[in-house]
Protein: Cytochrome b-c1 complex subunit 7
Organism: Laccaria amethystina LaAM-08-1
Amino acid sequence: MLFGPLSTSLAPQVKSSRTLLKWITPIANWYANASGYRKLGFKYDDLLCEENPEVQRALSRLTPREAYDRAYRLKRASQASVVHAPLPKEQWTQPSEDIRYLKPHVLEVMKEEAERKMWDTVAVERK
């Protein structure tokens, strides 16, 4: 079971209710902006813990362009951290650009691992 950004989410239930979506969306936007990761040029999936084996395998499945973009964002944010200043406003990640590019790969790895465990524990019976 994973905790954090890849754990169970209430987003589908919130999105299905128009009233709840109207109330939660401003709070969610405020929280994303207050967390500050967009000011450093990160996308949400850049914050996933790389020590997790599923995330490691998912990172190896990124296209060369996605891997390059991720490395560039990490280096750029590292430089901004060294100078103790956020990036210029035009380099901040916009909410429309902040897509979950790594989560589908991680979920696929988790499904494969569950299937592997299932097949590894199959009891073979002789007829």
Notes: Residues 64-82 form the longest helix (19 residues). The chain has a mean pLDDT of 90. Residues 1 and 7 are 7 Å apart (CA to CA). The helical segments are 11-16, 18-35, 53-60, 64-82, 103-120.
